């Protein structure tokens, strides 16, 4: 699939207004997760760091980042925490957010926690489900799932289901970051939060695994855009065909990190006439905000072919 850059863009804006936005970058780190968020108040957050230090380090240096205000580890699996070790050694970190889940079959998660504890001035937090994280007074960052009490585990599914799940809401739109949470947690979240799950953008759980992103969950979230982070020719066969089929059936546009970092921008409420566009290499897509008409597609044939190629890889 061609590299696709998704962002909400306004052609001409005063600098003060253009900065009052939420930027989200879904970093190409291979088979893993790393999401970098920038907030209207000028602060930032890094959610996971991928399976190695180089990709996330290179991305942050290219962005000119010198300080990370908040580092978040969704759960203690190496494709999420290994890259964060490099982050702690190379950048100033202000705050660290974690679960109390300990992967007893790995040492790396505790090594990372030691780095966080040793970071000068860095505070560690263990948020609970239902907490609102005060990262920016204009942005609601709500915790939907977390293992906030100490627990030791061997099972991969248990680790996945301890994922710290976040919903970032700004200017009428939401980004739902699912970590590796599986369908069991999706069910719990749906029962707990009822109507508070609707989100324009969905970071698809567990790299597109068939064990997440259920029909019932998609019906509640109603995503317009789905972003999948995974590596080429991974041994798990991610993303699975079943997940791609479900997302397609619900009309979500699918973007992946396979060919590069994906990004989106939610504009300031003061911006009028913003539109959704894509990288010219994929083709222009122009829609009013917040309306999405999934029948108004450009280069449908090319998009369909790319999706079929993704499905073929998952078989």
Stretches where pLDDT falls below 50 for ≥5 residues?
1-18, 273-315
Topology-level CATH name? Metallo-beta-lactamase, Chain A
- Beta-strand residue fraction: 25-35%
The overall average pLDDT, rounded, is 83
Helix content: 25-40%
* CATH H-tier superfamily: Ribonuclease Z/Hydroxyacylglutathione hydrolase-like
Number of domains: 1
Number of helices: 9
Plain-language structure description:
The structure is a single chain. The protein is α/β, with parallel strands linked by helices and 315 residues long. The protein has one domain (7-314): Ribonuclease Z/Hydroxyacylglutathione hydrolase-like (Metallo-beta-lactamase, Chain A), CATH 3.60.15. It has 9 helices and 18 strands. It has helices at 15-18, 53-62, 78-90, 108-118, 156-160, 183-193, 215-221, 241-249, 300-314; strands at 7-9, 22-26, 35-38, 44-47, 67-72, 92-97, 101-103, 123-125, 132-136, 139-145, 151-153, 165-170, 173-177, 201-203, 225-228, 253-256, 262-266, 275-277. The strands form 4 sheets. It has a 7-stranded mixed sheet with strand order 8-6-5-4-3-2-17, with helices on one face. Strand 3 (35-38) and strand 4 form a beta hairpin. Helix 2 (53-62) crosses helix 3 (78-90) and helix 3 runs parallel beside helix 4. The longest helix has 15 residues, at 300-314. The two termini are 16 Å apart.
């Amino acid at each position: 699939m061609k590299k696709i850059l998704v962002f909400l863009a306004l052609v001409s804006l005063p600098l003060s207004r253009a900065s009052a936005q939420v930027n989200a970058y879904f970093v190409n780190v291979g088979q893993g997760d790393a999401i970098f968020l920038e907030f209207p108040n000028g602060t930032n957050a890094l959610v996971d760091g991928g399976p190695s230090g180089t990709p996330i380090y290179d991305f942050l240096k290219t962005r000119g980042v010198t300080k990370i205000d908040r580092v978040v580890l969704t759960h203690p699996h190496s494709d999420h925490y290994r890259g964060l070790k490099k982050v702690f050694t190379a950048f100033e970190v202000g705050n660290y957010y974690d679960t109390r889940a300990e992967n007893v079959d790995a040492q790396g998660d505790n090594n990372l926690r030691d780095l966080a504890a040793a970071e000068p001035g860095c505070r560690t937090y263990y948020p609970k489900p239902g907490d609102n994280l005060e990262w920016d007074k204009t942005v609601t960052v709500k915790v939907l799932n977390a293992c906030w009490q100490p627990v030791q585990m061997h099972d991969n599914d248990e680790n996945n289901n301890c994922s710290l799940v976040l919903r970032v809401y700004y200017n009428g739109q939401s980004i739902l970051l699912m970590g590796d949470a599986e369908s069991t947690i999706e069910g719990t979240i749906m029962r707990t939060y009822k109507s508070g799950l609707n989100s324009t953008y969905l970071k698809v759980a567990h790299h597109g695994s068939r064990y997440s992103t259920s029909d019932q969950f998609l019906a509640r979230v109603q995503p317009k855009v789905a972003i999948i982070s995974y590596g080429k020719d991974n041994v798990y066969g991610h993303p699975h065909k079943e997940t791609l089929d479900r997302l397609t059936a619900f009309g979500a546009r699918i973007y992946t990190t396979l060919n590069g970092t994906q990004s989106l921008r939610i504009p300031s409420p003061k911006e009028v006439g913003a539109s959704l566009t894509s990288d010219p290499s994929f083709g222009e897509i122009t829609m009013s905000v917040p309306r999405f008409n999934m029948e108004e597609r450009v280069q449908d044939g090319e998009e369909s072919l790319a999706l079929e190629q993704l499905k073929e890889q998952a078989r």
